[in-house]
Amino acid sequence: MPPLSIWFVRSALVHLMLGFTFGALMLGNKGAPFDARMWQLRPAHMELLLVGWLIQLAMGVAFWIAPRWWEPPRRGNVTGAYAAFGLLNGGLWLVILGSLFRLPPGWTFVGRVLEAAAAGAFLWHLWPRIVGREG
Amino acid sequence: MPPLTRWLIRTALIYLVLALIAGVLLAARLLWSLPLPTAGLDTVYLHLFMVGWVTQLIFGVAYWMFPTYSREAPRRNPLLGRIVYGLLNAGLVLRAIAELGRTAQGDVWSWLLVLSAVLLWFAAAGFVVNTWGRIRGR
Amino acid sequence: MPNLTRWYIRTSFLYLAAALLVGLALAWRAATPLPGFFARLQPVYVHLFLVGWVTQLIFGTVYWLFPRPEEERFHERMGWATYALINIGLLLRAVSEPLGAPPGGFWGWVLVISAVLQWLGGLGFVITTWPRTRLHKKRRR
What we know:
The structure holds 3 protein chains of 3 kinds. The model of chain A has no long low-confidence stretch (mean pLDDT 94). In chain A, 72% of the residues lie in helices and 0% in strands. Chain A contains 4 helices and no strands. The radius of gyration of chain A is 17 Å and the shape is elongated. By secondary structure, chain B is mainly alpha-helical. Chain B has helices spanning 3-31, 41-65, 78-101, 108-132. The two termini of chain B are 19 Å apart. By secondary structure, chain C is mainly alpha-helical. Chain C has helices at residues 3-31, 36-39, 42-65, 72-99, 106-129. In chain C, helix 4 packs antiparallel against helix 5. The relative contact order of chain C is 0.15. Chains in contact: A-B, A-C, B-C. Chains B and C meet through helix 2 and helix 4 of B and helix 1 and helix 3 of C.
């Protein structure tokens, strides 16, 4: 597993755990209410699991297992993949902090733009690697 | 990587970008009043994400990497695989259009929503049938 | 493909079909009036899909494809425990949530238990997967 995949997957695991923790708090509060503010965790719960866990894990594994070139650099131009890691984590934490601390909506907007840019950057890296055995 | 996997993964990547653009629009809605039908956009965002991106990516990777079914038919039924691809994407596009177009219970868009749900269910059933026998040891 | 992976993936397939059936019921609600029970299926639909189908399929595939663990026996036991926790937790949720029982009652506490079980399942997966994210790769049979 290449170092970038390790970063992606470990980051995904951290976000999975945080997302499950927020989810458990909300679900527990639905069954036996203990704090009315728990429902405010919902946007952060969704962001942690949809973006922090699922997208990040998929990117990490795709970077690792997608077909490689016969000659170095075997994963092609990796700039887009590294950029995606930074943009995705930066974007998702802007959205999470924006929702948790009720910051102005501009935080969420900028965060979402960074997430979309991360997807574009990763697509730029991965697209040429989606090939058959014949290349 | 077989051709169908390439189609599935490339389509999944496009849906990832589209889903995150829908996410940008959802956030922009909080800042400006947009001249867009944004009422069902949160549901569209979720479905582009769950079905278009994640599920389609899984279908593609499973079709490629799961143990072979037999020597004669390593990926079981390629035609069924292509039908699943068609059903999944037709159902998803229809869902997105119907969700954004729907204005009242029982209107034509609502019935298209039902049709899209049926298409998605058959896509899943086709995938399960085609893949079940490949879930085994070497 | 190890036995545990087969259980994870086959179970995830059943959840995919179940989730999309619930999705069909929800879409039907948009077209014709249905009892209030159906409105409460929305979170069940999303969680059957994202936890039952997607996350469970990922857990099974990771168990199969990631570099092999050092302590295989411990790893396998934890894998089965995670499988049980996630599935019992999710099924309890799918049953108790649509009933819409008053919070603090019997079904409310079932929901609390389901939350704890799923959280423990997530923790089990993270504990066993973390040490397997490393450079060396050796595939399981």
